[in-house]
User: Which sequence fits this backbone?
């Protein structure tokens, strides 16, 4: 993603929060999901970095950031 690009939501329409408040579909926290529409582009990019880290650390692999 280039810095000028508007960050897209990582939502994959698999919405279920696990016991750690992480969505099993997009790897965002419940708070990140609820605040996404009000986040600046920079905040969204920061969140996407966290999403990628959570996804990589999980035992499940998807294509959220490909």
Assistant:
């Amino acid at each position: 993603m280039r810095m000028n690009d508007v960050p897209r939501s990582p939502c994959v329409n698999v919405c279920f929060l696990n016991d750690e408040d992480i969505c099993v579909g997009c790897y965002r926290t419940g708070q990140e999901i609820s605040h996404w529409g009000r986040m600046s582009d920079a905040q969204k990019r920061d969140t996407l970095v966290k999403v990628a880290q959570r996804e990589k650390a999980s035992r499940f692999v998807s294509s959220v950031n490909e």
In short: The helical segments are 30-35, 41-57. The mean pLDDT is 89. Residues 12-57 form one domain.
